[in-house]
Amino acid sequence: MTTSTRGASKAPAVLVLEDGRIFRGRAYGAVGETFGEAVFSTGMTGYQETLTDPSYAHQIVVATAPQIGNTGWNDEDDESRRIWVSGYVVRDPARVPSNWRAKRSLDDELVAQDIVGISGIDTRALTRHLRERGSMRSGIFSGEAIAAESELVARVQAQRHMKGASLYEEVATKETYVVPAVGEKKFTVAAIDLGIKGMTPHRMAQRGIEVHVLPATASVDEVYAVEPDGVFFSNGPGDPATADGPVALMTAVLERRTPLFGICFGNQILGRALGFGTYKLKYGHRGINQPVQDRTTGKVEVTAHNHGFAVDAPLDKVSDTKFGRAEVSHVCLNDDVVEGLQLLDQPAFSVQYHPEAAAGPHDAAYLFDRFVSLMEGQRA
Predict the structure, then answer these.
(1) pLDDT per residue over 161-184, tens digit each?
(2) Helices in 60-122 by DSSP H: which ranges?
(3) Could you read off the pLDDT of 29-40 as tens digits, one per residue?
(4) Catalytic residue flag (residue 354)
(5) What is the DSSP string of 326-378?
(6) Active-site residue, 285 included
């Protein structure tokens, strides 16, 4: 929730955490108040892609890089139709953007989209606090929204938790749209929008795939009406334990043995469809520098992440499911979190991270080629 006014960018501001920790700084972007789950992102670049990623809905994002805004804001790099974060926390905002693609400053764009932020706080101390205590409910208050500390803490503590939050329908498209193949059309994919980033269908289109992006509430009949060669389940926000509809849809796709690929929220949906549980991570993985091992090849990739939940699946064995054998295909080298699943007896796999590489890196781009290979094999 956000209420804001424009201007007054030098107004005092406070960031309030649910455990009572308070950080004082100056307003950045719109002035007012906002609430969300405080999380930190370790990417040193790519803030425009981060802010417009629907997976960050209802979260206040803390940038761990000390200076933010150097490259300004352009009209090409948005990953969706708007900024989705609830609030933005930076240490040292750039005074003047310097990039030939910039159309305006980050501060100007935050004001234009009524995103309340805060600058000038010790983001290193805040990040260490969140790593120790875990991601938590928080609020940013600036200008006339500032009140007594006890009142602000109480208002933060009255907000909903991310665990149990159903958010994917809120960010998904309401109408189906088509991203045409680049060059010769080779395949048709039905992509279920749970919070999809714009670069994802673009990566598939580059491989000759015509992508039909469907709402999160699409029925199995609507999916197969486009005569898909494969079905894709996207990233998205919220607790996967609430996503019974997408789980039922994925189950129907698996029953038809259609080639299937899921990322992030889609990985958690596959986990649930296979009978595994999900759980909330202490502070999650967010940024563009997370090390993951592809256990099928042994290769280590540097990958882009944005997830606060994970799949609870065994790392040390192949599991029997109602769709055949399944195994953990990728694992995070920092903490052994499940980062990918694959079925061994039919064409379906998923990863927990973001192979579309916006804003980078590009180590995981091969996963789209793996999806193409599954569809080629099914067609053959």
Answers:
(1) 999 999 999 999 999 999 999 999
(2) 106-112
(3) 999 999 999 999
(4) yes
(5) EEEEEEETTT--EEEEEESSSSEEEESS-TT-SS---TTTHHHHHHHHHHHHH
(6) no
